[in-house]
Amino acid sequence: MSKRLGRGYGSGKGGHTSGRGQKGQKSRTDIHILFQGLKVKKSTLKRLPLLRGRGKFSAKSKPVEIDIHKLKDLKKGEKVNVELLIKKSLVTKKDAISYGVKILGTSDFKKDLVFEVPVSK
């Protein structure tokens, strides 16, 4: 069984320093979180971008993009909202709630519709 450091006389290490040496960072109770043992290396914590809070490592999500030519079978003056797109199975309910929906206009479209979701220029 190994001898436990920093636990006083009963640990089997002897005197008041308890096997840690005399002075220095490693003789104290806490080692700084950025300490890696060498001055040359940069810590992995130092390399991280300065982002704070929740969602630091999660990927940024974009809305589900639907091309406007997929809406050609809708009637004139019909309201285009998330419920209609789910009903027509152009987008899944899970994706629509998680990421949102955006209509992209890459093709010519002459029908008059009322959009209640974000639309590109």
From TrEMBL:
InterPro entries: Ribosomal_uL15/eL18_sf, Ribosomal_uL15_bac-type. Residues 7-22 have a biased composition (Gly residues). One of its GO terms (biological process) is translation. It comes from Candidatus Woesebacteria bacterium GW2011_GWA2_33_28. The keyword Ribosomal protein applies. Belongs to the universal ribosomal protein uL15 family. Residues 1-28 are annotated as: Disordered. Keywords: Ribonucleoprotein, Ribosomal protein. GO terms for cellular component: large ribosomal subunit. This is 50S ribosomal protein L15. Transmembrane segments: none annotated. One of its GO terms (molecular function) is structural constituent of ribosome. The keyword Plastid does not apply.
